[in-house]
Specification:
Layout (H helix, E strand, L loop, with lengths): L4 E10 L2 E11 L4 E5 L6 H8 L7 E6 L6 H6 E4 L11 H11 L5 H10 L13 H13 L5 E5 L7 H11 L8 E5 L3 H4 L5 E6 L2 E7 H8 L3 H8 L3
Parallel strand pairs: 3-7, 3-8, 5-6, 6-7
Antiparallel strand pairs: 1-2, 1-4, 8-9
The structure holds adenosine-5'-triphosphate.
Adenosine-5'-triphosphate binds next to strand 2 and helix 1.
Length: 232
């Protein structure tokens, strides 16, 4: 099966600054991958390139054998770092909007998850707490039957107990053979659901390894390895 995402010599400059530099990376299907790195290492830049929101300065990024564009947006479900939803809307109206907008939106899955999370679908988004808004957005994104889910800092505002539910239920209840790419600093919370990790630093690839390899060969958790590699 073709990889879901491939980068070859991917470079992105902002002016003279290299946010990503000659990145070569392949993401296989059916995996949950952590995109990890210190602040400013290029995670969001890579995510925006994958979603066609930025264009490469050099090199290529290919999604399911296509350049980012209209066709790849159909198969990527993307949670950006900042909300794009109209906060005046009620949750139930946003659901209707998603049903209209995305052919691959699974309303029954979304409704079941919102019920489990005890989120009132009559509520307007602006009346919900920060963490609850994040849950709603994550439910919306994970309820599409996508090939690639890209989540940029998905659970920063969610309390630790709800994080467990979200990680166990939402992130594992998605389309079979789909890939989930998660950028986060909450490594210890998330590492148990990850299959592999990609470490970025100064826009370059520092490590691309499975979580099992890190644990068995280095005898460390991903969180411990991250702290060691990126010690200030
Ligand atoms: N529009 C822009 N113009 C100029 N520089 C930018 C722009 N966007 C990002 N950068 C710079 O590019 C580098 C990579 O930024 P990016 O947002 O990709 O990092 P990140 O790994 O997602 O960081 P964080 O963990 O803090 O979210 C940073 O040094 C940032 O200041």
């Amino acid at each position: 099966m073709k990889p879901i995402l491939e980068c070859q010599g991917l470079t992105k400059k902002y002016g003279n600054f290299f946010a990503l530099s000659n990145l070569n990376l392949t993401l296989e299907r059916g995996q949950i991958i952590g995109l990890l790195g210190p602040n400013g290492s290029g995670k969001t830049t890579l995510i925006k390139l994958a979603n066609g929101l930025l264009t490469p300065t050099d090199g290529h990024i290919i999604i399911n054998s296509m350049s980012p564009g209209v066709e790849t947006k159909k198969i990527i479900s993307y949670l950006p770092e900042r909300s794009y939803l109209n906060t005046h809307m009620r949750v139930e109206d946003i659901l209707t909007y998603y049903v209209d907008f995305y052919e691959n939106f699974n309303l029954s899955r979304a409704t079941a998850m919102l019920k489990d999370l005890e989120i009132d679908t009559h509520a307007r988004l602006r009346s919900l707490s920060k963490g609850t808004k994040e849950k709603v957005q994550l439910v919306l994104v994970m309820s599409r039957d996508a090939d690639l889910y890209i989540l940029d800092e998905p659970i920063g505002g969610v309390d630790p107990a709800a994080r467990d539910y979200i990680l166990q239920t939402i992130l594992t209840n998605y389309t079979e053979n789909a890939t989930v790419l998660i950028s986060t600093h909450l490594i210890s919370d998330i590492e148990n659901v990850l299959d592999s990790v990609v470490f970025l630093q100064y826009g370059q690839l520092v490590l691309n390894a499975t979580v099992d390899e890190i644990r068995s060969q280095r005898g460390k958790s991903v969180d411990a390895l991250f702290r060691e590699v990126f010690r200030c």
